[in-house]
Design brief:
This protein is α+β, with helices and mostly antiparallel strands. It has 2 domains: 41 residues; 118 residues, Jelly Rolls. The protein has a 7-stranded mixed beta sheet. The longest helix is centred in the N-terminal third of the chain and has 35 residues. The termini are far apart.
Length: 173
């Protein structure tokens, strides 16, 4: 009888030990799996426009409005030098209007500009002299206007093509 009781205790002890070992192993495996899974990344934030509406530019063909955009205005040397540099997003209906005191061959570049742009060169009479379409982001190559200009409008690449804006058309602001 004592032997039988001893045997039952031994079996119970082995079962209890087995349960603890299995439980410990399961816990260890589960915690290891959690660490090996890549952390879930939060959904990327939707880019928010980073601009201040300071005016509007209307594009005209033969005096008739084609389309209108909201613009920031760069009218001093510091604003013109910075332009749209360091921006990661530009809404389709937004651009930048550069205003120069005197007409000249004001060339532009894309240094520190990550957004491909259409650069619209405009003469003192507000007629479009030339358009540099789909400019290369970060390029330090000079992009000349091929004529005297007093105003420049920068918009997202493809804007001029989508809106049928061409040399000879005009702007008003």
């Amino acid at each position: 009888m004592k032997n039988n009781m001893k045997h039952r205790r031994s079996v119970f002890a082995y079962i209890l030990l087995g349960v603890f070992l299995l439980g410990g192993a399961a816990y260890f495996i589960a915690s290891f799996r959690d660490r090996s899974k890549p952390a879930e990344m939060p959904a990327p934030a939707v880019p928010r426009p980073v601009y201040n509406k300071e005016g509007e530019v209307t594009f005209l063909k033969k005096g008739r409005p084609l389309t209108k955009i909201e613009v920031e205005i760069a009218e001093n040397e510091a604003e013109r030098a910075k332009g749209l540099m360091f921006r990661s997003y530009l809404p389709d209906s937004v651009g930048m209007l550069f205003i120069f005191e005197q007409p000249d061959e004001h060339a532009f570049w894309m240094k520190n500009t990550s957004i491909p742009l259409d650069i619209i060169y405009v003469g003192p009479d507000k007629k479009i002299v030339s358009i540099a379409q789909n400019t290369q982001p970060y390029s330090e190559e000079s992009i000349p206007p091929y004529g005297l200009v007093q105003y420049v409008v920068e918009v997202n690449a493809g804007f001029t093509k989508r809106n049928n804006i061409q040399s000879g058309d005009a702007i008003s602001f």
